[in-house]
Amino acid sequence: MKIRFGIGTGSETDPGSLPALVDRLEEAGVDSLWFSELVYSPAVDPVVGMATALARTERLKVGTSVAILPGRHPVLVAKQLASLAVLAPKRVLPVFGLRPAGAGELDLFPVTGRRGDVFDEALRLLRAVLREDEVDFDGDHFSVRGAGVGMRPARPLDIWLGGRAPGAFRRIGRYGDGWLGSFLTPDEAAAGVAAINTEAAAAGRAIEDDHFGITLLLAEGGVPAPLAARIRHQRPEVDPADLVAGGWPELHRLIDRYIAAGLSKFVVVPTAGEPADGFLDRFVTELLPRQN
Q: Do strands 143-147 and 265-270 pair parallel, antiparallel, or not at all (unpaired)?
């Protein structure tokens, strides 16, 4: 499996610092930069962030961790993704989720009907438009005739999905090309990989072995007490140290356990806000040698 490490932008990342960050990542040879969909925050919009990063680089990959698909028309999303992928082949890594992480943002992504059903249908239409010149589609939530987005990459984009509930594993197995999880212990991640593969097999599909990953929080200097308390409140059965790395040695130990669980792609997000110089330098020193 190809082991790869990327950096995730957090909710406090200043859009004004993005160009300098992108230039540093490209110069250092970092694999990828990931943008979360956090509307009510200083964070840059994921599509705008990806376009900015791609325009300044030649090697850096960009992804969403994660963007919300239900509440958007999948043909318009396909147009954005295809445009980016044609301009920067093999460097666009979209990951979609069911609902936003930000408090109070759900109403910004309205759907008619059950959100999970809309997500499933949107994925079917999105994948079709990214693979075919003209698409006729009739569903419960979307109906199009002759939908096409013009130029598309020679190899269809892989569509990865987030989530950690049984419904998410079913969806990934049926419609996804990969999984980017979050806030899962290594044991839970191993169970997720198994569940996704079982669902894929039942649908007559297969997920590539190196298309499983996770977003990891790194709290240099130890897990902050407020974050640990929030984790214990939400998941009292889990040790916060199994979800958040309290330093670089702890991050390595968690990565080892996730690799043993079948994961090979890692998005590391610093809890201290935007990636600063010290974090970037340490990231390069600690993690790039682990790539293969």
A: unpaired
Identify residue 202 by its one-letter amino acid code. Answer: A
Provide the phi-psi class of 208: left if phi over 0, else alpha when psi is between -120 and 50, else beta: beta
Which pLDDT belongs to residue 274?
63
Contact 69, 122 (CB under 8 A): yes
Q: Which residues contact 139 (CB under 8 A, 6 or more apart)?
A: 121, 124, 125
What Rg value do the Cα atoms of the chain yield, rounded?
18
Burial class (CB in 10 A: 0-12, 13-18, 19+), 25: buried
Lowest model confidence (mean pLDDT) among 126-130, 154-158, 202-206? 154-158
Mean pLDDT of the chain: 95
Taking CA atoms, 70 is separated from 97, 142, 144, 175, 253, in Å, by 8, 11, 17, 14, 36
CA–CA gap between residue 107 and residue 166 (Å, rounded): 24
pLDDT in tens, 240-269: 999 999 999 999 999 999 999 999 999 999
**Interatomic CA distance for residues 266 and 126, integer angstroms:** 25
- Rounded to whole angstroms, the Cα distance separating 119 from 196 reads 17
Lookup: tokens for 36: 């979360």
In this prediction the pTM is: 0.96
